[in-house]
Amino acid sequence: MKHILVISQYFYPETFRINDIALEWVKRGYKVTVLTGIPNYPQGTYYKGYSKTKKRHEIWNGVEIIRLPIEPRRTGSIHLIENYISFVTKGKRWVQKTNLRADIVFTFEVSPMTQALVGVWYAQKMSIPHILYVTDLWPENVEIITGIHNKAFIGCIQKMVDYIYKRSNRILTCSNSFIGAIRKRGIDEEKIEFWPQYAEDYYKPMEELTITEIPDDGILNLVFAGNIGYAQGLDILPKVARKLKNEKLAVRFTIIGDGRFLPVLKQLIEELKVNEYFNFVDRKPSEQIPEYLSAADALLITLSKSEVFSITIPAKTQSCLACGKPILVSADGEVQRIIQTAKCGLVSAAEDVDGMVDNIKALLNMGESERHKLGDNSLVYSRQHFNKEVLLNRMDTILKGE
Fold it and tell me: Distance between CA atoms of 399 and 4, rounded to whole angstroms?
């Protein structure tokens, strides 16, 4: 039985795709240990029942979880940096002291990439392979997330990224476009491979709905579910709502989740006097999200304008496609290409208010059969290009070193 050590700063009960990957590995006969932090994403405070002294070691559905006593994210760039650094420092100490022996290390790299240092150090100590799964490009994401543009600081990040790439035996990417960006850093293309994320099995169309937070009253329901961060570009929605209000067009934006940008978003809505266009729903367990998505007339994927975001496929893309709904995109590049190729929605450029308004008008003017066709196309594309079984079978061969 091959023993996989997963390095991921975020893990259950935080909602990330690595949760499902780990569970699937257990089902396939692997032994899985996860080194992670104390759950505090995205709200920035520890989840109820967790602390630096509580639930530091758990067994969850056959997955062994070891939690490092990291600092919570809280709010502000300084606290976020402390959160990132604490995982690395606590992780290095763990690597130095641990007697745990794994056969392979798999680092699930959503920001911060600093967590991958722990995977590299453990792999070096045990002389075993390190697989890096890149879902966020660094140092590009650092400047966006932290707002820090100091050249000396970014230069240090550049060196760290190169150190990690060169000491990883395989590099998997969630976006095909990442391969070129990584190759430009002098990394051999033969060890880089596109391995897209898939949607968990519970993401599927649902006919019977029990939720009451999204009214079925004839108003067009546009639903966003996920992290409400600065990267998501949700500040476009109040501006869109103001234009729709001026034209007396009724639409409802339902925002489900939590995050660092939520207070700012609510303030923008107040300032532009478009409260009646918004419906906020508290963060829900991921297993409940498909019911909320199924209550939508269309699903929202938004991103801020950024060169790195234009080559990123947000994880929510696969979730939205798997639920068989029309998709409304306000983002550049890769995600636009997917929705256009799938013929399952309408797209506009990141931060293009007029473009998004026009697409919403088009949705308002569509007949039910036309919207239904877009949703069917979402489902077809999901099954053809993000098939969970096919992707996990490929991962099996990667874990074997093939």
Answer: 9
